[in-house]
Design the sequence.
């Protein structure tokens, strides 16, 4: 290994690399299950797709609910304990999927699975911010994102082969992945929340952290901008395949290839892009990223051929490459150390609400105006995020990592 590579790895503590490996295993294990769970439920219970969707909606609701409350818990109890508990609960949910024979049991397990996801994401993001200095956080979150996307890419492929052997076998292997990560965290990961900070937070009520976040006007408006960007993103990843099949006879396989473009770009380009934008003003990066999203999403309405939609995917993925690590890094840098988990909670909640709203808004445009109106409408809504980030660029000083909007005007 040359000196440059050694220097790069030494930028981050050993614990960071262990966490990255753990998150990769976690996402791979999740990928064994989530693409096939709707098929499994439909076959096992002999229920309609609408009923399956209703159960999965419960899972999404549990994710949103958990996102709101888990941040203050990580600020009081610590990152490590929340991460380990969530992994064990996820393993239990997967293990008992094999024994689920009723709609009620499936609903309970899906709620449990949905509730654990934000715990892992929020606690790991807060842990990274605790252990990595501000100047290296953009690179750190980029590496986290790459590792998780590699897991997203490999998981479903391996899961497809496992499912052919047995769904039971697939559930058990996924549960083993979760348990192995939890054990690794127990043995080799140290708590990153300082004892002094934990004691300080334990004296305050659980709602104090969330209240403090809502008094931070810069961050709340930033979260609104993230929510708007998420509505654009979710329309692409939820509605695009149906739009292409119904209007242009583009198959699910080809739609999957479009999604693969997104994943491959993230895996291959995320770290390079993050290094290039490292020293730029975060709000102007958000403006550029949102503008690329708008261009990519709106252009879908103009296409009729597969190659056109592939170009649209490339454009909007460029926006994602800029926005995703910048947004997480901004949240980590802007948050006071003692309530960083609460900030991560609201950030995650904004993403979740946006992902929930996007398909609903897109479907309303599609059903009441026209299919192409989905994408024009998404672009128009996206302009709101650009305006918000431009305004915030004048209020946020990146040289002060905890700039607060004391100006209430």
Sequence:
């Amino acid at each position: 290994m040359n000196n440059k590579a050694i220097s790069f790895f030494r930028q981050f503590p050993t614990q960071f690399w262990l966490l990255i490996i753990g998150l990769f295993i976690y996402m791979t294990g999740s990928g064994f299950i989530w693409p096939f769970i709707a098929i499994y439920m439909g076959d096992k219970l002999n229920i309609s797709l609408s009923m399956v969707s209703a159960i999965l909606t419960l899972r999404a609701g549990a994710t949103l609910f958990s996102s709101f409350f888990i941040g203050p818990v990580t600020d009081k109890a610590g990152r490590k304990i929340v991460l380990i508990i969530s992994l064990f609960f996820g393993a239990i949910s997967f293990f008992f999927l094999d024994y689920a024979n009723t709609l009620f049991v499936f609903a309970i397990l899906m709620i449990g699975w949905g509730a654990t996801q934000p715990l892992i994401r929020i606690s790991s993001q807060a842990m990274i911010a605790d252990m990595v200095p501000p100047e290296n956080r953009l690179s750190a979150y980029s590496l986290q994102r790459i590792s998780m996307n590699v897991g997203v890419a490999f998981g479903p492929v391996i899961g497809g082969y496992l499912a052919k052997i047995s769904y039971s076998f697939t559930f058990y292997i996924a549960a083993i992945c979760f348990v192995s990560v939890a054990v690794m965290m127990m043995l080799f990961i140290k708590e990153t929340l300082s004892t002094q900070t934990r004691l300080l937070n334990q004296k305050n009520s659980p709602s104090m952290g969330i209240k403090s976040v809502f008094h931070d006007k810069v961050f709340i408006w930033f979260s609104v901008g993230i929510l708007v960007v998420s509505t654009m993103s979710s329309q692409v990843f939820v509605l695009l395949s149906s739009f292409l099949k119904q209007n242009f006879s583009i198959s699910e396989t080809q739609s999957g290839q479009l999604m693969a473009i997104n994943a491959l770009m993230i895996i291959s380009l995320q770290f390079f892009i993050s290094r290039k934008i490292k020293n730029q003003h975060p709000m102007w990066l958000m403006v550029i990223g949102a503008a690329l999203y708008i261009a990519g999403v709106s252009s879908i309405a103009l296409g009729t051929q597969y190659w056109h939609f592939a170009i649209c995917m490339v454009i909007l993925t460029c926006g994602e490459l800029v926005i995703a690590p910048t947004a997480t890094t901004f949240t980590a840098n802007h948050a006071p150390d003692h309530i960083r988990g609460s900030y991560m909670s609201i950030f995650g909640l904004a993403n979740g609400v946006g992902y929930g709203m996007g398909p609903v808004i897109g479907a309303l445009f599609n059903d009441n105006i026209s299919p192409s109106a989905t994408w024009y409408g998404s672009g128009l809504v996206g302009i709101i995020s650009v305006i918000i980030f431009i305004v915030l660029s004048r209020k946020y000083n990146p040289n002060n990592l905890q700039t607060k909007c004391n100006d209430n005007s």
Observations:
- The longest helix spans residues 217-248.
